[in-house]
Amino acid sequence: MDVRRRPPLPPRAGRVEPVKQHQINHPKASDALPLPLYLTNGLFFTLFFTVAYFLLHRWREKIRSSTPLHVVTLSEIVALFSLFASVIYLLGFFGIDFVQSFVHPWNDVVKVPRGHDDQLCGTTHLSVPAMPEQEDEEIINSVVSGATPSYTLESNLGDCRRAAAIRREALQRTTRRSLEGLPLEGFDYDSILGQCCEMPIGYVQIPVGVAGPLLLNGEELTVPMATTEGCLVASTNRGCKAIYVSGGAHCVILKDGMTRAPVVRFNSAVRAAELKFFLEDPENFDSLAIVFSRSSRFAKLQRITCAVAGKNLYMRFTCSTGDAMGMNMVSKGVQNVLDFLQSDFPDMDVIGISGNFCSDKKPAAVNWIEGRGKSVVCEAVIKEEVVRKVLKTNVAALVELNMLKNLTGSAMAGALGGFNAHASNIVTAVYIATGQDPAQNVESSHCLTMMEAINDGKDLHVSVTMPSIEVGTVGGGTQLASQSACLNLLGVKGASKESPGSNSRKLATIVAGSVLAGELSLMSALAAGQLVKSHMKYNRSSKDVSKLAC
What we know:
single chain; alpha+beta; two-stranded antiparallel sheet
């Protein structure tokens, strides 16, 4: 645990000493009125929002009645004056430090020596606001006592790695449990600030293996898989070999559209139905698509599917999202449409921007039937000789096992999208390696595995149909160094400039191709009775775990 005392910086020529806060007496905008500060702030906040609402309302009425905007009444003049006054006050109160940074640029900053600027979280500026120096031990005690909230450490210290170390030590003291074994060093904590993880105390190590080459659509690919399950990578690798020597697999994208489904309520089912008919009317689609796309040039509305439940209406928006997985993008577009509809349907009560008709991170028939994200089908023909020599079984045994296990057995279990052997194993391993959202493994693992004897029963046709693979190559965890490297290995790092969306679509085909390899190998192991033997060989530790310290 690297909790340290910070020694004072040695004096040197040219160094500017920080000015302590009690030495600075800058004027405040709140001094303008002889009222308590909370009353002054409350007055001008109320004034600002009241007149802003009044003016926006008047503006909308003028647009509806075709009244020129420059024709104003006395009340509108007063409102404009009040809005201007409240903006001046609020800018003066909250923006005084910003203005003074230009007037007195050296009063509140300290210079950062060259070579130390990489310690600043999320910034490359060479100066930061001066903060009173505190030793780590003092800060830890403050966090333990509750005087300093743990979530403020990054912003207060300006050093993300130091914040994680202090939070970690405070947690150990509070819980009286050791975090030894959870690494702290060797990770760029700046990279996750504000986008991937809050209040970090370290990181979990997951080994990454590779399967391949996977010959998919004429291209050789090496697939990274992050997993702690022994035998998984080896089994997938065997499936890749069987596909490769048989001439490769072919994959096709059937659909590409992320969904979001808000739920709204009306006073009657009739009004809910009226909005349903309005949204599904082709004549209204173009105007809705324009409104939807205001927040992103990549968001292209494809269709809106509605379902009525009493007075409630569920609207399932489907749109393309470029190379992003697209949940935030489609949510912004949906919010744009809801705001637009409010003028024509003022009695519409928005209950939630997500009403679970999407459906995200939950098994749902709507995803299985309609698709979500990328809908993909992948197939290969495995030669009889390959089935016998590489997979150690025969075509007839594989076809029979697939029918009784993946189809009949899954139906007996009442499976929803689970007509496969272990698609989620491969999906999750590839997702973690490439920075996808692991929770979306739920719907992304929907998979129908089919096997059929062809060419007079000599060869095997195998396919996987996956209607809801949700992946992206930009945003979220894809920006982290390790995950970015895995995407680069696959040739799909970042956004495609030539053809927006092509990288994420290619990644979806790689996921499906990897699942095909994994299904082929596991089913062969089951048909040949090799599953238990292989797991005992590759999925058991040789260490005596009883002697390991707890």
